[in-house]
């Protein structure tokens, strides 16, 4: 009778049901939506295969109960394998690439399952039709899940729902740092609601904290008091041996998640591995990959894409050049010295967007600089020509940098190239020079001119330390949306 319930360390647990706080139930309707979308994608994949190969008089589709298999059994097989691969795990939904990796893994499992079933039951199926059905379903699934994630991010940013209400535990400095990071990205779904300090703090300092601060409280009781469903252990709050384990024991069966925010920051997941030694989990951080086969592939991709881009864009280059000449007589291109890979100087190619006397007029506008970094930025810069404003807003002025990419001075993706100066790259910012500067980058897709200099440097350093070909492709994809939205461009 009580076989479904167990006692562990004094906490009642249920094998079949976990009690979750009301505020953490956003994932249930979201997972239900994903299940419906995945079923529709699988059925649509089968329909695509049928229509594609029947029009080409393909054989192998006339099997008993084909409609039931294609539109019922196969989609159900997809759902089971998606569930088995953790594609509906709420901890992986809404952020990161792990959700999509698990969908792809499930697709491979579906293909293997269908192949084994066809062989076992001696069903003659067209290999191309099966491949089309599975591949089509996988593509539809990724697209629909991408749209669902965008909708979830919209809800999190605008409506402030579907979040994990989080209690931060640690010193004031550590918890405020984590607070700054997670609130900077509301799409991540972590909403700090309170702080529990492990050290003392003055009343004046506590009054400056944007969320309630507590000390000397029972953490479990505080979680229920503030309505949290997640506890984030920040920095050194877990330094006392055994305390974190005891807290994890206390949380068993409560439905409250426990996450640890280590002091190592701005390091992507693939570089971090856990190596347990006698029950002690050690975080192993690998060095950044700044050479090798991946870098050669990146350079090859850069130059091939740049050459094809220049050839395809020649008519647009001609139209833009003519418009610049009509607006203000002078050179079509603007070339400026920038610092590149390993500190080498090069001249960046851009379409000229300012009047020819822009440099002479700069001295009168220095006090109006709206940037806190090395570049002069001004939203309504009077030196910019009418066509120049359009080119900047649409980012068309940067297309000639494809020439720099062909010459090996720049990359398609990388840190932004900055003007040469005496003290421009002191301290950690010098790490930006370990890779080639890029036409686009993490800074450009994260706000561009709307970001502070400190934040821009942090984003560039994050890219340097964590770059990969997959990351480059993701940034290029995000660039398309940023360009069309004209976000932060002036």
UniProtKB/TrEMBL annotation:
InterPro entries attached to this UniProt entry: Bact_transf, EPS_sugar_tfrase
Name under which the protein is recorded: Sugar transferase
Highest taxon of source: Bacteria
Localisation: Membrane
Record field: transmembrane: 30-53, 65-83, 103-124, 130-148, 304-324
EC id: 2.7.8.-
Pfam families, per the entry: Bac_transf, CoA_binding_3
Keyword terms of this UniProt record: Membrane, Transferase, Transmembrane, Transmembrane helix
């Amino acid at each position: 009778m009580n076989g479904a319930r167990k006692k562990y360390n004094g906490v009642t647990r249920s094998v079949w049901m976990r009690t979750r706080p009301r505020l953490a139930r956003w994932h249930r309707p979201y997972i239900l939506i994903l299940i419906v979308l995945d079923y529709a994608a699988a059925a649509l994949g089968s329909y695509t295969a049928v229509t594609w190969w029947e029009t080409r008089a393909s054989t192998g589709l006339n099997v008993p109960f084909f409609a039931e298999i294609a539109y019922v059994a196969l989609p159900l097989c997809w759902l089971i394998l998606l569930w088995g691969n953790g594609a509906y795990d709420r901890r992986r939904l809404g952020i990161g690439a792990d959700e999509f990796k698990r969908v792809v893994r499930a697709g491979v499992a579906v293909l293997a399952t269908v192949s084994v079933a066809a062989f076992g039951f001696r069903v003659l199926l067209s290999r191309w039709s099966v491949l089309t059905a599975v591949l089509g379903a996988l593509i539809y699934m990724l697209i629909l899940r991408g749209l669902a994630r965008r909708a979830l991010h919209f809800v999190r940013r605008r409506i402030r729902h579907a979040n994990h209400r989080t209690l931060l535990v640690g010193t004031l400095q550590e918890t405020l740092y984590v607070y700054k990071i997670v609130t900077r990205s509301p799409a991540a779904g972590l909403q700090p609601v309170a702080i529990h300090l492990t050290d003392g703090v003055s009343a004046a300092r506590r009054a400056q904290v944007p969320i309630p601060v507590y000390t000397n409280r029972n953490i479990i009781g505080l979680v229920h008091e503030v309505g949290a469903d997640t506890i984030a252990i920040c920095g050194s709050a877990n330094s006392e041996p055994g305390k974190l384990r005891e807290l994890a024991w206390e949380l068993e069966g409560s439905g409250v998640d426990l996450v640890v925010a280590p002091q190592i920051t701005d390091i992507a997941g693939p570089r971090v591995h856990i190596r347990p030694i006698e029950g002690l989990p050690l975080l192993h951080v690998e060095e950044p990959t700044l050479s090798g086969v991946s870098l050669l592939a990146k350079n090859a991709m850069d130059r091939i894409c740049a050459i094809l881009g220049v050839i395809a864009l020649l008519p647009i280059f001609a139209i833009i050049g003519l418009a610049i000449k009509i607006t203000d007589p002078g050179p079509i291109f603007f070339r400026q010295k920038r610092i590149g890979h390993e500190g080498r100087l090069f001249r960046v190619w851009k379409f000229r967007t300012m009047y020819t006397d822009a440099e002479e007029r700069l001295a009168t506008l220095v006090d109006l600089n709206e940037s806190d970094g090395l570049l002069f930025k001004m939203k309504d810069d009077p030196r910019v020509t009418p066509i120049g404003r359009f080119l900047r807003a649409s980012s068309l002025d940067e297309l000639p940098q494809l020439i720099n990419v062909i010459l090996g001075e720049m990359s398609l993706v990388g840190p932004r190239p900055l003007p040469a100066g005496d003290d421009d790259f002191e301290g950690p910012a010098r790490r930006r020079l370990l890779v080639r500067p890029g036409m686009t980058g993490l800074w450009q897709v994260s706000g561009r001119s709307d970001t502070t200099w400190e934040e821009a440097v942090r984003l560039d350093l994050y890219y340097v330390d964590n770059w990969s070909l997959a990351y480059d492709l993701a940034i290029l994809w995000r660039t398309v949306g940023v360009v069309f939205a004209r976000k932060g461009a002036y």
